[in-house]
From TrEMBL:
The gene is bglA_1. Gene3D superfamilies: Glycosidases (3.20.20.80). This is BglA_1 protein. Its EC number is 3.2.1.86. Belongs to the glycosyl hydrolase 1 family. The keyword Transmembrane does not apply. It comes from Weissella cibaria.
Amino acid sequence: MTQPNMPADFFWGNSVSSMQTEGAWQEDGKGLSVYDVRPATDHTMDWHDAIDEYHRYAEDLDLMADMGMNMYRIQISWSRVVPDGDGAFNEAGIQYYSDLIDAMIARGIEPMVNLYHFDMPLALAKSDNGFMSRHTVDAFVRFGAEMFKRFSDRVKYWITFNEHNLYFTDEVFEISGYDHGERTLSEMYRIFHHTMLAHARLDAIAHTKYPGLQLGGMLAHAATYPATSKPEDVYAARKLNEFLNNNLYDAFVFGRYSHEVMHYVKVHEIDWDYQPEDASVLSKMHADFLAFSYYRTDTVNADKIPAGEAPNRYLNTANETNRFLETNDWQWTIDPLGFRTLLADVYSRYRVPMFPIENGIGLHETWDGVHEIADERRISYHRDHIQAMKDAMFEDGVAVLGYLGWGLIDIPSSHADMEKRYGFVYVNRSNHDLKDMRRVPKKSYHWFKEVMATNGDKL
Ligand code: BG6
């Protein structure tokens, strides 16, 4: 059966973070973030130069425009704009984003802005232990509110926290500016709750002061399957999904946490700094869209869950290989149908437009300096995922606003640096050799250009 045409206003584009693209870690008044002080080792790079987009954004935007992208999700780096996190605003940093946004608009590229992507200003990590403290919440709301004020005339689409549910996993201690403590479950829940309060307060400001602005919540949604049809596995997958995904979607859409999470906190006497007035703060939330990253699916085996484990931590021990799926070199499964299932499930539960804003495959690639990189595997990954999304839209009736790939110009990966590339455009640097940072289109560049020229018709 021929599928209908995609909506004329569908977004196609690319998504990145500041620290994975900009470089210029000490330029024009930028303060340090926790990423800036991560030392290089034999196997890892420092993040000082990234792909130098701070100086090369015009060239990168030209490539995006040439491909036909009509959206680019960037991040405004908190420490570039407020060097110590809570003091004076750095006008030179703000000017950089203003110029970048203007340059996008001039090329017909709609900006989406994210406000936090794991790179806490170092000063707040040291003084306040990052999002462990409510003072950091206040500082973040102040920064975000100022960004709405400066840019809402040109930026309509906003998110606050990248992959907000990671703040409910053990990764929280790496990504929230957490500097010291015992890494307890209570601390994890406290940081998570603080970040939700920050989101809720910014959500209220956005929707009361800037009526045209669209703000959504964003998750890392790696859907989890039961390892078998054994009821214990099915139950574990359901419970995990309730904690890691529904709990946040409930908050974004209904303004309250999942009752199962609230019950768990009460029964287990978790001290998560939930104050009486917080319910009212959370209740103000309203999501214009539900955004998420999607790379893979996971599988949970209930037999491997230690007794008494908190449901949001199940995957620490119980993640199992899915023998039905192929993986990339980092054992991330390739699962386009999982993408469709997720879109259909979440939309059916919330009826809020869905927005996949990160999708892609990391591959080992080295350019020989002459020949085009023939990244067939990347082409088939995106082709299959876009087709799955179209099936969700046209067969299951899901409203989808757009499709943004992750890091479609090579950027350092969060776990494997320049060894793991996602781009349609190669960036000529390695972990320890900056080379010339030349941008070189891969085969997938031309393929995706045609996809966008036909608005997703020709895959
Ligand atoms: C997302 C993050 O989890 O996945 C990105 O938002 C990250 O920062 C991306 O780069 C891909 O993961 P990785 O580890 O392969 O870079």
